[in-house]
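INTERNAL TRANSFER SHEET
From: sequence group
To: structure group
Subject: Fructose-bisphosphate aldolase

Please process the attached sequence and return the structure record in the designated field. Keep the field labels unchanged so the import script can parse them.
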Amino acid sequence: MNRYEEKIARMLAGQDDRTDFILADAKDSDMAAGISATGLRRDLRQGHSRFRTRREYVDVIHGILQQDIVDIMLTSASILETLIAEDGFAGTRIQSAIRANDTTDLWRGRGGSYQSQKSVPFRSASLKKAQTSLGLYSMTFNGDAAQDSFALEEFARFREEAGESRFSYFLEVFNPNEGRIAQADRGFYLNDMIVRCLAGLRREERPVFLKVPFNGADALSELCAFDPSVIVGIMGGSSGTTRDCLELIHQAQCCGARAALFGRKIVDADDPLLLIEAMRSVTDGALSAKEATHLYHEKLGAQGVPPLREADLDSVVTEAVLLEHAA
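Return from structure group:
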């Protein structure tokens, strides 16, 4: 068993502790943003930057795999094919996973506006041809009966196919993106829709765990406490400061979350490997979010890596949803 499988087994048996917190690196955003998904390759000394090439992006993933700290590496099916061909997972205890669907509200083509339109269910990847047994399925509820029921019908089709292919999945549920649901209600609306969605499923049909946005401590605590057999994880959102990243993990863990799947926060970091080290130090309880941010900058300095933000600025919590409980 790899680390992910061992941690899930302990969680389901009620035997997990804080060191079993699951960290996943979401390197699947090429299915959303295309070229701009790879993140910027900065040359601060020369004062310019450009997007990483696919080869550079894959090389970054290889480095994270060899570091062997994250528990899941989530990629597109095409990136996973390359990693497997290059023995990227050899010698690691990391679980591979693919994005199993790519609904239209994920699409981020430069100049496009898909993210503000109705979320249309869509799948590029084939489960029958998948080179892994785990994937991410995503949905967006908007309070539109016709659209939301259509999304649930497609989810049911996916579950049938997943069962036939012995493919397990974790379920990502995004915040509403059309404006029908008031922002103040989003967290609790999401909780109700997730529980309503899962209520009709037998245990064998359910996701292994959830991936949800952090809509504040009250909403996340409610969801985590409602049914401890449901493992709740959080998504990262925008890049933000290093302190934002580490504070988000800390607060989510305090609310009962047991997993975090971060994409942009890792890919846009000054040093992704050092950020992952800092994330693990926070989830293990070794350092506070503030302490881990300062240590991160000390290590950047020791390696001669110029930071995008100076340590004092990078230690500030800037995400409004985190400010109330930031230490």
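Handover comment: The CA atoms of residues 298 and 304 lie 10 Å apart. The mean pLDDT is 95.
Transfer complete.
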